[in-house]
Amino acid sequence: MKYRVTLVRSPAGRLPNQRATVKALGLRKLHHSVVIDSNPALLGMVKTVSHLVVVEEVKT
Length: 60
What we know:
Blueprint: E1 2-7, H1 16-24, E2 33-37, H2 40-48, E3 53-58
Antiparallel strand pairs: 1-2, 1-3
């Protein structure tokens, strides 16, 4: 299963680990999206910044 993660709120002014997580996910600007695989490490990263992103399931 794959997910599309879209950055909808700015990481500016957030905790350093949250800013680093957004960068590690590959999200650069607002409304930028990336498609990620479903594995525990990436899902944990998404959970860390869940208040900054929108997650949608991608149909393949």
